[in-house]
Amino acid sequence: MTGQKRVLRLALLGCGTVGSEVIRLLHRNGDELAARVGARLEIAGIAVRRLTVDRSDLPVPAELFTDDPMSLIERDDVDVVIEVVGGLEPARDWLLAALKSGKSVVTANKALLAEDGAALQAAAAEGGADLYYEASVAGGIPLLGPLRESLHGDRITRVMGIVNGTTNFILSAMDSTGAGFGEALEEATALGYAEADPTADVEGYDAAAKAAILASLAFHTPVTAADVYREGITEITAADVASARTIGCTVKLLCIAQRQVDADGTESVGVRVHPAMIPRSHPLAGVTGAFNAVFVEADAAGELMFYGRGAGGSPTASAVLGDVVAVARHKLTGVRSASDTSYALLPVRPIGEAITRYHLSLEVADRAGVLAAVASEFATSGVSIRTVKQEGHGDDATLVVVTHAAPDAALSSTVDRLRRLDSVRKVLSVMRVEGET
Ligand SMILES: NC(=O)c1ccc[n+]([C@@H]2O[C@H](COP(=O)([O-])OP(=O)(O)OC[C@H]3O[C@@H](n4cnc5c(N)ncnc54)[C@H](O)[C@@H]3O)[C@@H](O)[C@H]2O)c1
Ligand SMILES: N[C@@H](CCO)C(=O)O
Ligand code: NA
């Protein structure tokens, strides 16, 4: 690497939706990136699962493809490893090997980071390499960069947002058409938003992994996916969405990572992913289709919102290449970025200790004393009711209750007891409420 001809060589692992767009973007912007970095970025090899697939549409010579990722990683002329395969294994082995040998890594692998981010950080420190992963959360939206750099002088109190495009598409469709979950999922699949196996998205695993990554960075505390309370959207019904509408809300799958401070000043964090009703006037309510948006609240900066495309080959490739430019510059100047810190080691609180608000819609018998019986269950748990609305029809009535904030455990035990009351014929909808209603 001397004079005008400096070159940095990249090993690309994976050539699917994201990998193929990384190749195209690198080809398209190659000259500019060389000027920005101060060295030409060249692909040394591309690891794929099957060499027989026709990839002649990609602007790279066929001899670059290999089905032996580890040998590619170990090559002496490789400076940076880009991993866009996904999954825990064998990606974990590849990235640990690359980092320990001093090769910087750029990855989009949220599942691995949320499970074993600490081991990857340790390997990066051991090898003196960089570990960058902007693409792993909210795809093309610059979010981890601001959290790990721009906001480092501040103190983050909350990160709340929509970090899964598939579920946001489904919930937006349910809201605009009145469709049930199954019908909206079918539409999302037909349009290519939902994968053939949508479990990771609709059950909230994808969002929970992202929540863990966001919480770790925001609160300087190791948080893994297993620490995140998770509920998906498969149980959301058209009745839930209609019920939200009656109180001026819409339903969103939210990722919430929050700093909690007790009266004695003890700090902890709560990290959760679940559907929630939010007021239609809330900025997150206007985030429709497959878009993502994340609110960050910090002591000095106040409220910030990041919005854009959280998925798709091209936006995600933008985030990957942004990271490649950063680690390439470090390589040239012989520095590495500081590791993500986890000095705070805050305890992660269980969901029962989160302070939430509930919306309940109940079908009750319309007779004397029923409202009092329902209200008394809330009182027993120390939960204060904020609004209650009753509409009679025949012998029955629909009771819509919105509570004030209370510990989640108190709210859920109240719901359990209400389900057992004789006068409660059916619980039509129960959901947490976020944002000022
Ligand atoms: N697609 C998106 O919108 C998006 C957004 C953000 C992050 N990500 C993340 O990016 C990563 C890649 O996602 P994708 O959508 O491109 O997936 P994809 O399934 O389209 O591509 C993955 C590729 O890796 C290949 N592969 C599997 N095992 C391999 C092996 N052992 N060796 C070499 N190649 C192997 C597969 O054949 C496939 O072509 C995942 O971690 C994903 O979570 C994707
Ligand atoms: N499946 C994810 C892709 C981006 O991580 C989503 O729907 O948002
Ligand atoms: Na991002």
Describe the structure in your own words.
The chain has 437 residues and is α/β, with parallel strands linked by helices. Helix content is 36%, strand content 27%. The protein folds into 3 domains: 7-139 and 313-333, Rossmann fold, CATH 3.40.50.720; 144-309, Dihydrodipicolinate Reductase, domain 2 (2-Layer Sandwich), CATH 3.30.360.10; 352-433, Alpha-Beta Plaits, CATH 3.30.70.260. It contains 13 helices and 17 strands. Helix 1 packs parallel to helix 11 and helix 4 runs parallel beside helix 9. The longest helix is centred in the N-terminal third of the chain and has 21 residues, at 17-37. The protein binds nicotinamide-adenine-dinucleotide, L-homoserine and sodium ion (NA).
Looking at this protein, list some descriptive labels.
13 helices, Alpha-Beta Plaits, alpha/beta, binds L-homoserine, 11-stranded mixed beta sheet, 437 residues, Dihydrodipicolinate Reductase, domain 2, Rossmann fold, 27% strand, binds nicotinamide-adenine-dinucleotide, binds sodium ion, 6-stranded parallel beta sheet
